[in-house]
Amino acid sequence: MQWSHTVAWVLSLGNIYVIILLIADYRAMSLNPILVSKQEIRIQYGIQMLSYIEIDNIESVSMIKFEKLTKKDLKTSITPLVIEPNVLIRLKSKITVIRLFGKRQMVDQVYLFLDKPHEFQVECHKLMDKQNNI
User: Fold this and answer.
1) What is the mean pLDDT of residues 44-60?
2) Which of 61, 88, 103, 122 is the most buried (most CB within 10 A)?
3) Residue 91: is its pLDDT beyond 90?
4) Dihedral of the CA atoms 48, 82, 128, 56 (nearest 10)?
5) Which helix or strand (DSSP H or E) is residue 85 part of?
6) CA 84 to chain centre
7) Contacts of range 12-21, beta carbons closer than 8 Å, 24 or more positions apart
8) Cα dihedral sign for 76, 81, 82, 86?
């Protein structure tokens, strides 16, 4: 406020907007879990990421110890913003992921942080085996 009242108000409103955005992200994460069905996996990480992965498009699902990705890998992968991922889904062909503020990205690897990564991996492998046997 020492320099400009207008700038102070704009910054205050910006801070309020960021707080509302964080609350919305938290609410979206708790209300929209990752869903696994017979045909696809619906991944929604709050308002950070939304995507649908068909089971027959999954090459592999593995638990990982995350290491920093190169710039080249970041262009074709999606990772959670703040949390270190523990699951990697490799895809046979690229899919579209809707990121924060509606930005679209084509990816062939999806990194996730899950509370129960082993159960997710087992369930995905069961569905992949069923798809391959059909």
Assistant:
1) 88
2) 61
3) yes
4) 40
5) none
6) 12
7) 21/47
8) negative
Task: Fill in the DSSP letter of residue 67.
Answer: -
Mean pLDDT, all residues of the chain: 86
The string of DSSP letters for 28-70 reads HHHHS--EE-SSEEEEEETTTEEEEEEGGGEEEEEE----PPP
What residue type is assigned to position 25 of the chain? D
By C-alpha distance, which of 115, 44, 107, 48 is closest to 82? 48
- DSSP state at residue 125: H
Q: Which of 117, 99, 97, 92 is nearest to 107 (CA)?
A: 97
Higher pLDDT, 86 or 134: 86
Rounded Cα distance between 94 and 108, Å, is 5
Helix boundaries (H) for 5-116: 5-31, 71-75
Check: CB of residue 46 under 8 Å from CB of residue 28.
Answer: yes
